[in-house]
Amino acid sequence: MNTETCAPSEAAALREIFASHPDAVPPAGWEAVRSFEAEHGIELPEPYRTFVAEISDGLRAGPPDYGLLPLAKTPSDWGEGRAERLLAQPFPLTEAWLWEGGEEDEGEEGLSDEEFEARVEAVYNHGSLLLGTDGCGMYWHLITTGPQRGHVWLIDEFGAIPFGTRPATLRMPGTPGFAGWVARWAEGRSWFAAG
Question: Knr4/Smi1-like domain: from which residue to which, for each copy (predicted)?
């Protein structure tokens, strides 16, 4: 996965997918993208960066279920009073983490309640851009900073899972990254089904 340059094949695939959706939002343009990046101290990962600037700045219906959010927006169910989103702070995870139960939380027992809450808050708010929601507190994040830069993660009340990976206990197959995530949705395939 190349997060520094947009492969022509990825841009072409994204253009084709979104050309068939009349509810696609017009692109934001390079000036808006550069302004957003300067405001947050980041450079968006490719191919998302080119997608927003040249192809579309969102979609009113899927992906995810409630639409692909325009740049810098949060879903209506995100809620008020949440911690500030810090896109330039590194995303704190490199592998799936369940808040409770399962193998992914082994070693977390040593965290105090305050440390645990701070880590969960960082997972939600550090180093990621919100792509949208599937409802019921299920949020899709594009990682903007840190080792997972360019990957898409599903974060909800149960934990955080990267798209396009196959950990032994959690399966969310597909091609990692924004283009792979969009392609899986466009094919009408389940996020969790095999294949």
Answer: 31-158
Q: Are strands 152-156 and 97-98 parallel, antiparallel or unpaired?
A: unpaired
Please give the backbone phi and psi of residue 147, each rounded to the nearest 5 degrees, phi first.
-60, -25
Say what the pLDDT of residue 77 is: 81
Domain 8-186 CATH assignment equals 1.20.120: no
The two beta strands, 159-162 and 97-98, are antiparallel
At what angle are helices 8-19 and 178-186 packed, to 10 degrees? Answer: 40
Tell which residue, 177, 171, 160, has the closest CA to residue 195.
171
Q: What is the spatial distance between Cα 64 and Cα 138, in angstroms, rounded to a whole number?
A: 10
Report pTM.
0.89
Q: How far apart are CA 18 and CA 172, in angstroms?
A: 23
Encoding tokens for residue 164?
A: 């396009």
Token readout for 59 is: 């979609």
Instruction: Please state, in angstroms and as integers, the Cα–Cα distance from residue 152 to each residue in 31, 33, 73, 112, 127, following that order.
Output: 24, 19, 17, 28, 12
- State the pLDDT at residue 112: 84
Share of the chain above pLDDT 90, in %: 54
Q: Which residues contact 113 (CB under 8 A, 6 or more apart)?
A: none
